[in-house]
Design goal:
Function: Catalyzes the condensation of pantoate with beta-alanine in an ATP-dependent reaction via a pantoyl-adenylate intermediate.
CATH architecture of the largest domain: 3-Layer(aba) Sandwich
CATH class of the largest domain: Alpha Beta
Helix content: 25-40%
Bound molecules: adenosine-5'-triphosphate, pantoate, beta-alanine
Main location: cytoplasm
Organism: Stakelama flava
Number of domains: 2
Strand content: 15-25%
Family: Belongs to the pantothenate synthetase family.
Radius of gyration: 19 Å
Strand order of the largest sheet: 1-4-3-2-5-6
Enzyme class: ligase
Length: 281
Amino acid sequence: MQTIRQLTQLREAVAAWRAEQLRVALVPTMGALHDGHMALVEAARRNADRVVVSIFVNPRQFGAGEDLDHYPRREQADSRMLTDAGVDLLWLPDAETMYPAGFDSSIHVGTVSEGYEGANRPGHFDGVATVVAKLFNQVSPDLALFGEKDYQQLAVIRKMVIDLDFMIDIIGVPTQREDDGLALSSRNIYLVDEDRQAAVALPRALGIAARDIARGGDVPAALAQARETLEKAGFDVDYVEIVKESTLEPHDPEAPSRLIAAAKIAGTRLIDNIVVEPGPA
Ligand SMILES: Nc1ncnc2c1ncn2[C@@H]1O[C@H](COP(=O)(O)OP(=O)(O)OP(=O)(O)O)[C@@H](O)[C@H]1O
Ligand SMILES: CC(C)(CO)[C@@H](O)C(=O)[O-]
Ligand code: BAL
């Protein structure tokens, strides 16, 4: 695997692949890699001839008081994992390369970015959209892969790609979970034993609510029950909501739906989501 930190070298490497008409996939990450990221890499390898993974802890998507300074950074371990997984190129820009002095632009994706994560983390999706647009222009991949764990992020990127005419296929990869159901996340390492055990309430509460709703149960009651379960487990709940699949528009009982939630346990903010499978007719 090649590791590249300079934009000029990245352009040369990608241009050489283009000359051979190879199909290039990009997996954008913030590092501290786990099996969730590796599922994106595997999907990338299945769908492309060459795989680029970027690692950049993007300051512009962190709000004041968030965990930018503590966010786990593990360059060597990440590099070994990516080499073992057959990744071709690791793109490791620094903050100066991404945001040189005088950088003064931002991408705002409309309605889909404004509720839920957008409302709880003001400016977050502007930071995500801006850095992802830059990564798209730097690597010019044929496809890019994102996890369903960050469900709203996936919807925001899809909308940006449509609205701004990026010629890039966006592939969403299902959420990878621990054996007890907790979604893999770089932030799980913040959880000490007791909080880690309590955290399983998040996927469980969503699973129970999704089953209730799929069987025709009362939607507000199911959401309230999930919220109560989370609070009893020690979570401070930001939101538990039901939305239309893919677009996150307001819930429509006739359309496929998804439950989305964000909650903090012992100061660690976790997000999760689950599909509401249509019940028997
Ligand atoms: N459990 C998972 N299953 C599938 N994809 C995932 C999972 N966790 C992260 N991803 C995806 O990996 C990509 C990079 O995510 P990121 O580096 O922020 O990791 P993360 O574990 O989500 O970290 P964080 O703790 O910041 O949420 C994103 O597209 C994200 O959706
Ligand atoms: C897409 C992303 C790499 C942009 O910084 C980040 O939001 C993430 O890791 O999900
Ligand atoms: N995986 C989303 C990145 C973030 O929380 O900033």
